[in-house]
Write a structure and sequence with these properties.
This protein is an alpha+beta fold. Helix 7 links the parallel strand 6 and strand 7 (221-225).
């Protein structure tokens, strides 16, 4: 069923590949004939340049997380060590900083994106591999195709917005939306009040999506598992529609713009894919406009060159909307991005050839999925389709891509606003499926954490300010695994995320929202004799919690924190690992040696403590850098005295240690 799949590939007979080059060859005669006929390029020379670009491997590209607390250190490491090492070898074009990406945080390197970097003979490339791996695991950096970075940038996301990425897997665009939302929240660790929903039709891909997006450590994240065109309409407690301010619909497509990174498509490509997917794409875009708030913005995108999936969908959508939406002129946005305008005219072709009109095709062989909405209409002349954005591989060494930005100016016409008709039997099946989804799919349900005494204990122990407002903001995924004991993990959610999770259907019953993940894991149960609070703060939860803490925070010397982190990394030259032999009993961990640090540590209770290096002077930027180095640790007592253990993962610890040493060398912490 085409309507229930994320991406459909048309089944073909063996002789369908007859005119395609030998296995591995980057040629396809039908591809060339189809796009020549469509006139996607300015002239034959332009078309030849496009084809040559498609036949070369795609370079490696990545972007640095603009909201990451590691931003400064990552950027300096790139510019001071990694990129110069590649340039010195002289075996490739110099690494390129992408001019159109904001704050110059995207990079393009002349290495095939599918190359095995760690096995390279080049020292610079191996060092690049280690850098990408480490920074990627901590969420400081994301490998992502350049053209894929464009749609989120054109959404203009603000921290308080309600945002949904309707077809989100694998998650690089959702991560980008979260980063933009956090970066716009400003300095000081303030979290966005809105929500970013990452939705996908496949539960398996939704789980991968969760893994990708959780690196953002965002309380604004909600991951759901719905067919995009059937995402439930949500209502608040007053019965008002809970619509979205920003929607990204990067819809399932034939993907022929990705030929450079998916060479198997050369053999598989034929004109059927775009025809097969057009109706699904139009349904997703139509439903996106239903979910969009008046004044809100929808970005529709594909990684295809095919007008069946691009301009014909946009034009059909504008015709249905009858003036309630308009195309936004983004020609002045990302001014350095090389692009082409959308097509005003196109042809409709399938595996049987081109068709003059839908009615004309009725007496001829045609695909069953051919639809009237694919064909050009005289009414389309008045639509500014040139405002669509086409990106070609030969313009700036990228993949092919299509982007359109819609603005909803008023309510949709009634016939467009009406939800798709679902017969009684299917409606019953859907309702039952929603009710049994968690059990059937083995996904733990989201449960509101309403243990007021536990919340009060956490708030008091860590001296949390009212601004964090933990009451009602915590969720868990399972009931306690110990009788009479609170759940193991607590997730902190933004106001926007909470509002979505408590939304209902129009009649006040469950909205049937199928939630795979939500919020940031902020607290974890750790019951230890003599420790007053049953919950410790996680390293990933620090971004949300630390700015609101007044207790259990210890300012230490940078050298002391360096020793603690170096021990976690088992660095040669560091003292014996934490928990190892000690020379004598002590009420202070042996790494803490400075008088003021000792005094501060004595003032906190055993259990979870947050160690933060002391900034140099009263400079606000130095304080921001020092706060970004906050490390969650466990202060425990044993037979040989007190000890400190790092609660961050070893990968996180390694990145924090690098950043700490970077700050020490620049004398921003002491």
């Amino acid at each position: 069923d085409i309507m229930s799949t994320a991406c459909v590939k048309r089944a073909r007979d063996a002789d369908d590949d007859a005119d395609v080059g030998a296995s591995g060859a980057r040629t396809n005669d039908r591809f060339e004939a189809y796009y020549r006929a469509q006139g996607v390029c300015a002239d034959e020379d332009d078309f030849a340049r496009m084809m040559r670009a498609f036949q070369t491997p795609l370079p490696l590209t990545f972007r640095v997380n603009a909201s990451s607390k590691l931003l400064g250190a990552i950027r300096r490491r790139l510019e001071r060590d990694v990129l110069p090492a590649l340039a010195r070898e002289g075996t490739m074009r110099a690494p390129k900083c992408v001019g159109w990406y904001p704050e110059r945080l995207a990079f393009q390197i002349d290495v095939a994106r599918d190359a095995t970097l760690k096995a390279s003979a080049s020292r610079g490339v191996v060092a690049l591999h280690e850098f990408l791996k480490q920074a990627g695991e901590t969420g400081a950096l994301t490998r992502q195709e350049l053209v894929s970075m464009i749609p989120p940038l054109l959404l203009d996301v603000k921290p308080g917005h309600r945002v949904i990425d309707m077809c989100a897997a694998p998650g690089s665009k959702t991560s980008q939306l979260l980063e933009m939302s956090h970066a716009a929240s400003g300095k000081g660790g303030k979290s966005p009040s809105g929500v970013v929903i990452a939705n996908d039709a496949s539960l398996q891909r939704s789980n991968l999506l969760t893994h990708q997006c959780k690196r953002s450590n965002s309380p604004a994240l909600v991951v759901t598992n719905h067919q995009a065109q059937l995402f439930p309409m949500l209502y608040d407690a007053k019965g008002a529609k809970l619509r979205f301010d920003r929607i990204l619909a990067d819809v399932p497509c034939s993907g022929d713009g990705t030929l450079r990174k998916s060479p198997d498509l050369w053999r598989k490509w034929n004109p059927s894919s775009g025809v097969d997917l057009h109706t699904l794409q139009l349904e997703i875009a139509t439903h996106a406009l239903r979910l969009l708030e008046v004044g809100g913005r929808l970005v529709y995108s594909t990684c295809s060159l095919n007008p069946m999936e691009n301009e014909s969908v946009v034009a059909a959508l504008l015709k249905r909307a009858k003036g309630s939406v308009e195309l936004v002129d983004v020609s002045s946005s990302l001014p350095e991005l090389k692009r082409r305008p959308g097509m005003k005219y196109w042809k409709v072709g399938d595996v049987f050839g081109f068709h003059e009109s839908f009615d004309d095709s009725a007496g001829r062989k045609r695909q069953k999925t051919l639809a009237r909405t694919m064909f050009w209409d005289a009414e389309y002349d008045k639509f500014p389709l040139e405002r669509c954005v086409r990106v070609f591989p030969h313009l700036d060494d990228t993949g092919g891509f299509f982007i359109t930005v819609f603005q909803k100016t008023k309510e949709l016409p009634e016939d467009m606003e009406a939800l798709p008709f679902v017969d009684a039997n299917k409606a019953y099946r859907l309702a039952r499926e929603n009710a049994e989804w968690n059990e059937k799919k083995r996904v733990a349900p989201v449960i509101k954490f309403d243990d007021s005494s536990a919340v009060a204990s956490i708030t008091k122990h860590y001296g949390l300010s009212d601004a964090l407002a933990l009451d009602g903001a915590l969720m868990t995924r399972q009931h306690s695994d110990l009788p009479g004991v609170s759940p193991k993990r607590l997730y902190y959610l933004s106001k926007g995320a909470r509002k979505v999770l408590t939304a209902t259907a129009k009649d006040g019953t469950s909205a049937g929202l199928q939630v795979v993940a939500c919020g940031v894991r902020a607290f974890e149960r750790q019951i230890v004799k003599g420790v007053k609070c049953a919950y410790r703060i996680t390293q990933e939860g620090l971004d949300a919690v630390y700015p609101h803490m007044k207790k259990q925070v210890v300012r230490v010397r940078a050298a002391e924190l360096e020793t603690i982190l170096a021990r976690q990394q088992d660095e040669p030259g560091a003292k014996a690992s934490i928990g190892g032999a000690r020379s004598s009993s002590s009420d202070i961990p042996e790494e803490i040696t400075h008088a003021k640090s000792i005094e501060k540590l004595k003032s906190v209770a055993d259990g979870c403590v947050i160690l933060v290096p002391k900034p140099v002077g009263d400079d606000e930027d130095n304080e921001v850098e020092a706060s970004a180095l906050a490390v969650a640790c466990w202060l425990g007592s044993g037979a040989k005295g007190k000890s400190l253990s790092v609660l961050a993962s070893k990968v996180e610890g390694a990145q924090l240690l690098y950043q700490l040493r970077d700050c020490m060398s620049r004398k921003t912490v002491q």
